[in-house]
Structure formats: structure tokens, C-alpha cells
């Protein structure tokens, strides 16, 4: 892969990278289309990264419909699918990891120790392997975007990080490869997560309710209407540092992680001034 991209770079071609774990859906494809418009060469990486999963998470059962993914990539005009083995990426003796900073600690970082260390490390490797001028990330995983943005900036990585908006079902549910784990009733109820984020956003914007605790409580009560939901977190935070808000201010990020049955769903809403 590196030999291929070096050759392309020599002939002046711009390279866009879309890192994924596969099981591609319209969310991924929106990133691919954007990359297609903005670069000469588009590379999609498909790698289910073991270092970003916790011991009790879904690494083994994570969907891997590789042939279908390749078809979708081909139809979207992708030039290269990079699909390395785990052994190629993390051979015996592998020992160096990226240690992400404070943006990796709250929200998902609190409940998935080591997750962003694994993400940052694999993304740094993918950058070094594919040498992209631009790399595309979805705001569905907002904290991941901040981890990657700060990593690229702090370590002077010569890549522009492009943020792309979250693609949703008509119901409002954010598209996710994990949605296929949901039963029908779970899927029907899950749009409440988005509803809760929006309600919190409206209350923050409108400014009548000054108490962040009350705004949180209202949002949480909406999510609790999902049968079998367990809220891991619902936070209002600063969209740059991801530190919890202490008082009402904009811009803000409302972010949630909810177990619906056994499926962990995350979503967020950026509330602008
Ligand atoms: P994943 O395969 O889950 O690691 O996701 C690969 C990339 O696609 C990440 O940058 C995600 O943020 C992005 N992505 C996943 N779901 C969506 C979505 N619903 N809308 C936009 N981007 C998404």
C-alpha cells in the first residue's frame, strides 16, 4: 500500500482516506462520496481493530461482510480498499502506542478504557501507510474526531482532518453498523436517543431553563422511555475540550451512550450559537 501511494504522490495525485471497520452503510458512503469529490485517489480502509475493543466487547461478533463492502466501494468509485490482516497491523513484538490526551478521558473514554489509545494508534498507522492529504471522519463519533484532530495537530501529521455530518435514518436514528444487532422493537424505540439530544439542544438554545441538571434530567427521562434502555452517560460538554459544561453556554455538545438491550448506541448533537 505504501509503495502504491508513494508512486501516486510522485505523480502529484491527491489522496483521501476513509478509515472504517467495514459493514458499510450510508454513513460511511457519505464520507466516501465527499472524499471522491475532493481527491484524485480515494482509499477506504476496512479493518476491525482489535486494540480498540475491550475484553467484554463485540470484537468477535462485529459484522464483517467484506465482499459486500467491496461492491459498495466499487460502486462509489473508490480506487483502493486497504484490508490488512490483524497480524500485518499488529505483529508479534508490536509495542508502541499513541497516548491520547484529555479529550479522550470523559464520555466514552470513561467507560471504554484503552479504546481511544487503540483508535489513535491504528489511525496513526493508517496515515503512515496511506499518506493521505485528507482523512474523513464522521461526527457520529464526535469524541473520536477530537482525539484524531488533536493527535494530528500535536504530532504535526501532514493530513487535513475533515469532519462529516452524521447520517440518520428517517426516524432520526444515527446509522451504525451495530444497528443490525437491534431487535425490531428496540430499533423502533431507539430514535428516542436523538429526540432526547434535540430536546436538550432546544432547552440550551432557548435559555429559559438555566439549570443544566434539569435539562439533563428532561433528556434522560426521554431516553428512559426506551424499553430495556440503560443509559451509560448523557452529558452536556464543551465541543472542543469535551469537559462537562459548568454553566449554560454555546456552542455545546450533547452526547449520549445508551445500551438498548445488549447493543451500545452512541449519538450526539452539536448545538451552535
Ligand atoms: P466505523 O466503521 O464505525 O469505525 O466508522 C468509520 C467512519 O464512519 C467513522 O469516521 C465514523 O464516524 C463514520 N460513521 C459511522 N457512522 C456514521 C454515520 N451515521 N454518519 C456519518 N459518519 C458515520
Question: Your description of this structure?
Answer:
- With 273 residues, this protein is of the alpha/beta class.
- The longest helix is centred in the middle third of the chain and has 16 residues, at 115-130.
- The relative contact order is 0.13.
- It has a 5-stranded parallel sheet with strand order 3-2-1-4-5, with helices on both faces. The protein has a 3-stranded antiparallel sheet with strand order 6-7-8, with helices on one face.
- Helix 6 packs across helix 7 and helix 9 (191-206) packs antiparallel against helix 10 (212-223).
- It is built from 10 helices and 8 strands.
- The chain has helices at 2-10, 26-38, 66-75, 86-89, 108-111, 115-130, 142-154, 184-189, 191-206, 212-223; strands spanning 15-20, 41-46, 80-82, 134-138, 160-164, 229-237, 252-260, 263-271.
- Residues 20-21, 27-28, 30-31, 137-138, 140-141, 164, 166-167, 174-177 line the site of adenosine monophosphate.
Quick tags:
single chain; 273 residues; alpha/beta; five-stranded parallel β-sheet; three-stranded antiparallel β-sheet; 10 helices; 8 strands; globular; binds adenosine monophosphate
Overall morphology: globular
Low-confidence stretches: none
How many helices? 10
Q: What gyration radius follows from the Cα positions, in whole Å?
A: 19 Å
What is bound: which ligands?
adenosine monophosphate
Oligomer: single chain
Structural class: alpha/beta
Amino acid at each position: 500500500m505504501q509503495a502504491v501511494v508513494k508512486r501516486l504522490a510522485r505523480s502529484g495525485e491527491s489522496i483521501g482516506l476513509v478509515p472504517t471497520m467495514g459493514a458499510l452503510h450510508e454513513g460511511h458512503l457519505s464520507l466516501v462520496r465527499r472524499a471522491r469529490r475532493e481527491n484524485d485517489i480515494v482509499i477506504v480502509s476496512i479493518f476491525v481493530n482489535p486494540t480498540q475493543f475491550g475484553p467484554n466487547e463485540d470484537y468477535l461478533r462485529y459484522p464483517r461482510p467484506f465482499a459486500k463492502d467491496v461492491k459498495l466501494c466499487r460502486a462509489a468509485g473508490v480506487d483502493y480498499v486497504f484490508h490488512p490482516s490483524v497480524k500485518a497491523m499488529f505483529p508479534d513484538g508490536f509495542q508502541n502506542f499513541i497516548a491520547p490526551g484529555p479529550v479522550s478521558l470523559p464520555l466514552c473514554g470513561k467507560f471504554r478504557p484503552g479504546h481511544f489509545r487503540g483508535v489513535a494508534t491504528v489511525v496513526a498507522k493508517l496515515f503512515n501507510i496511506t499518506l493521505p492529504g485528507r482523512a474523513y471522519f464522521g461526527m457520529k463519533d464526535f469524541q473520536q474526531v477530537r482525539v484524531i484532530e488533536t493527535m494530528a495537530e500535536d504530532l504535526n501529521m501532514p493530513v487535513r482532518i475533515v469532519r462529516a455530518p452524521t447520517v440518520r435514518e428517517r426516524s432520526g436514528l444515527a446509522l451504525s453498523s451495530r444497528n443490525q444487532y437491534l431487535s425490531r422493537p428496540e430499533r423502533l424505540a431507539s430514535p428516542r436517543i436523538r429526540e432526547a439530544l434535540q430536546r436538550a439542544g432546544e432547552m440550551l438554545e432557548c435559555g429559559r431553563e438555566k439549570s443544566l441538571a434539569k435539562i439533563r434530567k428532561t433528556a434522560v427521562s426521554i431516553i428512559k422511555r426506551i424499553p430495556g434502555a440503560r443509559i451509560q452517560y448523557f452529558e452536556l460538554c464543551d465541543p472542543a475540550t469535551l469537559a462537562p459544561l459548568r454553566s449554560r453556554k454555546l456552542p455545546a455538545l450533547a452526547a449520549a451512550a445508551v445500551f438498548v438491550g445488549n447493543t451500545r448506541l452512541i449519538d450526539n448533537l452539536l448545538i451552535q450559537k
